[in-house]
Every structure is written in C-alpha cells, then in structure tokens.
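Q: What would this chain look like folded?
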Amino acid sequence: MRVIERGKYVWLLLLGFVLCSNYMLYRTHIGDQLLPSHTNGVVLGSLFDLIIMLPLLSMLYRKKFSLKTAVILSAAGCILARFLIPHHLLEPFTAITWAGIAVEAGLIIFELMLIVTLVHYMPKVIKKVKTSTLPAVFAFPQAIDEHIHKNPIIQMICSEAMMFYYAFFSWKKTPPPGITLYKRSSYIAFQVMMIHAIVIETLGLHLWLHQKSIVISIILLVLNVYSVIFFLADIQAVRLNPVHIHKGSLFLSLGLMKRVEISFDNIECIVEDRAILESKLSKDTMEFIARDFEKIHPDLILKMKTPVKATLMMGIQKEYSQIAIRSDQPAQLREMIVHQMENNSLKF
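A: My prediction, written as structure tokens:
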C-alpha cells in the first residue's frame, strides 16, 4: 500500500513538469530562445499537454476516473491555454480553445440551474428536516438528496448552509439526551482557544497589514471571519448531535468535520484489544475521537463487513472499513451496540 501511495506522486510530479515546461516555453526569456520560427507544431503539442495530458495526469493522481471530470479538466485546459500561450501563436487553433470555453460555460450554466432548483425546493427540504427524527446534520443532506440530484456544488452549498445554521440559528436549542463524544476531551476548549487566537491575530495584524497591502488584508480578514463562524458552528454541532440510533442504524457525527451512518447488520465485530486500540490506526479507519491536548485512544473499533461511506468537510465522501470511537459513556455505548447487533441477528 505504501508503494502505491508513493507511486501516485509520480503523476503529480509529471503534472507539475507539464505545467512548468509550458510556462517556461511561452512566458520566459529561455522559451523565447527555444521557440522555432514555425511554432504551429510546438503550440499543437502544448494544446495536447493541456487538453489531454492535464486531465489524464490529474485523474491518475486522484485515482478517480470519470467522463465528467475529464470534460471539465479538458475545458479548463483550453482556458488555461488562452492565458498561457500568446495570442499570435494560438491564433491558428482559436477554434479549439473556444470550444473548450463553450463547454465550460455550458457546465457553469448547468450548475447554476442546479442552484436554482435547490432554492426552489428549499421550503420542502426545511419542512422535511423539521419533521424528521434524525439530527439536522443527517436530516438536511438526506432531504436534499430526495429532491435534487447529487452534485459536488450542491454538496458544498449544503455544507455551508449547515455551518451558518449552527453558527447563528441553533443557540436556543438545548442538547438532546444521549451518549456524547466530546466531554472527556478538551475539544470545546480547543475550539474556543482557536477563536480567541484568530480574533487576537486579526486585531493585531490587520491594521499593520492594511498599510502594506489592502487586498491581502481584506482577504485575510474574510478568511478569519469565516474561520470564527466555522468554529462556532462546529461547537454547536458537537453539542447538539449525540450518538443516535434510528431504524437499525447508528448515526455518528463529530461536529461539521465528519459524520457516518452505520447499519448494525454491517458490523462484523467490535475490537476492544488494548494493544490494537493503542497502536497506530490504519488509513481505512475513521476516527470519532474528539481533539485533545494529550494523546488519547479509542474505546472501541467497529470493524465493517463492507466499507461504509462517510461524509467529511464540504460534503466530500470517502469509504472506511473500520470506525474508531471514543465516547463519554464507553460501557453504555458498547452495551447499546451489542444489543442492537443481537436484535438485528434475531430478525434474520
């Protein structure tokens, strides 16, 4: 596995070489000396690099292959070519780059239509969330999926919507009863410390930076405000979403950072061996362990029969074969999981 992980960086290195070599060819004095008098062949080679090799190397690095990704990256390569290659050299191939821009424009229009659809269905989504017995962090994405086709842009917008909901509209809610994941740790204290650090850094650095560069100071201010909002939302999401059981599934979330739904009949076994729990966890293990100032270990690991799909920040999804959990009531959580597993096995 380590060899494979290292091998993927070869594609990233080649991708960087393609971009750097083309930049050097058209935007440096060295390139001016290397370009021949008849440049059509060289420009055609650069278009091949940016429209064909760029998507291919990107997908090889990410290990995700799809026609949609290839089309988007190829269109992006066409746009990049217009900025990278001088106009007088690119003129014989203008039709190719305009085709890429047209494709990119079509995709943008399609994404905008999805956003309009999201706004149209939002009242139904909100009504569905209010009537759902699931925590909002799970109910909201499920309600979105019922009405709108899954899309990365929609997932990002929904992720941001949840952040603003928890940051500004959830403070009157009281935490529901249940097993929590954060009280045995310094998670809340750590988040509050981060907010204090950001506020102090903003007050201390912003005025000085504003005199040096107004643009950079504004960008930094926006990022700092966003970070404070995120940490406030994350604190509320952790407090208001204890461990939840619904229709034969275990719902786990740790703030806005990660969440997963685990079917009890998909749990192969519960790992409680201290040597395993205190050793380094594998990359296919998702950790529901609240951040602390000292090194801590999970109380148990749920080993899955088949990998489960977890949701991370910005709606990004990834599969895991094991789930490591540290809770505030470990004995009670274990008993609850075992009881649910036994009930599910009796049904079959």
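The beta strands are 244-246, 249-254, 258-263, 267-271, 285-288, 300-312, 317-325.
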